[in-house]
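ASSEMBLY PREDICTION REQUEST
Request ID: AP-0331
Submitted by: J.K., bench scientist
Number of chains: two
Total residues: 799
Priority: normal
Notes: Please return the full assembly, not individual chains.
Input sequences:
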Amino acid sequence: MSDALPFDGLKVADFSWIGVGPITAKALGDHGATVVRVESESSIDRLRVVGPFKDGVAGIDRSQFFADFNSSKLGVTLDLKNPAGREIAYRLIAWSDLYIESFTAGTMDELGIGYDTARSLNPGIIMVSTCLMGQTGPAAAFAGYGYHAGAVAGFYEVTGWPDLPPDGPWMAYTDTVAPRFLTATVMAALDHRRRTGEGQYIDAAQIEMALHFLAPQIIDFSVSGRLATRNGNRSDSAAPHAVYPCKGEDQWCAIAVESEAQWKALRQAMGGPAWSENSKFQAASGRLENQDELDRDMSSWTKTMTPQEVLQRLQSVGVPSGVVQRSSDLLQDPQLAHRGFHRYLEHGEMGVVPYAGHQFRIAGYDNGPRWASPTLGQHNEAVLREVLGMSEDDITEAVVSGAVS
Amino acid sequence: MLSPYTVLDLTDDRGELASMVLGDLGADVIKIEPPEGSTSRRTGPFLEDAPEPERSLHFFAYNRNKHGVTLDLREEGGRRALLRLAQKADSIIESARPGEMAAMGLGFEALRKANPRIIYVAITPYGQDGPYAEFAASDLTLAAMGGPMSLQGDPERPPVRVTVPQVWSHVSVEAAVGALTAHARMLKTGEAQFVDISAQTVMVWTMLNAMVAHAIHGADTNRNGPVLQMGSLNVPVINECADGYVLVFGTGPVLAKMMPWLVGDGIVPPEWIDGEEWQTWDVRLFSQQPIRYSLEEVTEAIRRYVRPYTKRDLLERGLREGVTIAPVSTMEDVARFRQLEERGYWLQAPLSNGGQAPVPGVFARLTKTPMSVRRWPPKLGEHNLEILGAQEQR
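STATUS: Completed
Returned structure:
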């Protein structure tokens, strides 16, 4: 039992697409659940047509954007507008413990596989609908991506430089927030079902999850009228607190001095340059007031070294510091290697490529994506035969009718 | 949903949202603070700008659905009390430096001795061991080391973080996922579980399509200002409007419905409407297939169209006609967003100065086990007597 996977035996029908739904289902699959990812050939998952593509060559089975979010799943393509395709969807819903979808509110009802249908097929089912704004309300039909929700939720306003237009966090930001909340919610609902047998319907609005990451600032606005906004890398209470240029092409090191002891340690590490003895830099308040000058002086020191050299010097005296790392740095990062973060998995079209691994490790078993993401329709027959137990005749008919394509 | 379970929260400002998520999902949470209070009570913003333990809006935002007790774990009595609480708890979440809890006799081994089915979740910057385990870290440095900063900001300036600290919020919610995953495993094995969560790896996951890009197409992704980087294409999406900015991404469905608007305002000639199969324009653009109108022409048309309108006008017209236009909301716009109001999202929370404030509500709507806020954040040591009993009170 010691190598038991937490969700071994759990059955997930993943009808979702893009980010939030697939990432949530993947978390369960990576930890042992059988996840069947349903895709449509006529309405391809948008991530399959956006890179990075293997070797820079576009192709629906060549996107690692898609692959990273769909490890440890079986892939099946269904035409849900074809009655025979819908029949197979019914079977999958009846088979599953958990049914996830992430389309614009109302879409599944229109396709004839909404919650009422799901519950009649499978009274104990847990069904999750997740979209940007929720299933109800005047903006329920707001159909977009995580960058839209990121802007509406306020994250763009607070990312970038005060004298430039909002920059925004990277990409579909709420897709990095919502799956965490949703996965926790689904796991709690599954535990409730395990104890009581009771299934239910979950309406998860991605904006309502993400806003918890700005909660202090939203509350602050309502009590003080203060509007949080973007301010580069500065902090209200700490200085130096910036990203400094280092030796090399576009190389940077982040330094955050959060206490007087750290300021003292930093001065020591720099060899006590004359500027750092200036009385206006003695107290945090003075450093905050004179940050432009402080940052210029700091840069004159950091520029003489690589970011790794700055990091080593500062870490040796306990000053919070970090190299601004890119994908290529992460792939060689010794700490990530120590944790076995990247997993090299063989994909049907891309060959062996690295997958981003797990964010937490549970002692006692191998934590990571179990197998590469499916190519489009890779497991069509396996799902029909082995998961749904369909006969050879039924499988042939499904293929001929175009239900499975 | 999690009402049978008790969670002990030993974290500071870096982990408090973890147990709040479990508490919102129904768990009974006991927040254990040192006698001087959690570091989050000293984290701003503060109510009326008064930096006092009961006035931190940061603490207030992340500690609802918790009982609050104080224990001095530097004292034998405090440590004994913690072990006694652990005997009746299901999980414990801490954010101490690697090895710090063990040095106090409160590490995983000690806790599992007290409770052989305990779930022990440890939150740290880089994990419990490895070459960076002892590194000093903060929100800024972890956004750097985890990668997202390399993707954010103007190319002529240094990379930027999200100004409002995000790292520990990501880590905390993922820690809740870790706790529940480990719980599912404990049900299978009957054994205590240790969960080691690394903030660095959590931040890697905020890079989305850029996480392993270099290994896939041989190049890193670099910051490039307010554009969406889709493969090798840079799509400008932030447009100035009459009272701020809106984000418009010209997907096929958006462009198909927007064309008559652009023609109506004289931005583009009428032949644009039928001159392109707009529904699939973006798919062809990104998959390097032929398109009639270029990305530059389309971007410029959108930019000119939105310029004279307000964020609200654009959002409302978009909602009426099914065109996705996202205002770049300020905190005020967020607080007044009609969608959230009509869904009854905001909850009125009592403040320590006797006032009230709307706070973010439950993060999911469940039909059978609705989430709720059963109690507001505790005052320092508020439940000492109730939970610790008379002798243990500190």
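REVIEWER COMMENTS: Chain A has a mean pLDDT of 97.
SIGN-OFF: pending second reviewer
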